[in-house]
Amino acid sequence: MSSPPPPSAKSVQLQDITAGTEGAKALFPGNLEMIQGLKVGLSVTLGRSELTVAELFALKEESLLKLDKGTNEPVDIYLDNRLVGRGELVVVGDNFGVRITEFGKAGGG
Known about the structure:
4-stranded antiparallel β-sheet; about 110 residues; 1 helix; mainly beta
């Protein structure tokens, strides 16, 4: 039985592309109709708590966790795990809600 020939390798010449995009057609020319129906994950973080493993295993039903934020501090708003804003926690009927106070600034503030 003869063995197959070894694979060959070829050099590839890549063309330099300049950063200029003058005259290029925009992918989304100011109209977002193509993507308006997409769903994204928006979440709100009230605060965080750090525990040792021993403290974690000691937790029971009705245990209380103290968060690192006060009741009057803003909550963080995340869009797919990226901080995009801050707001105030409010009650809307029987649900919690968030009144947006900052949105879209770099890093949420």
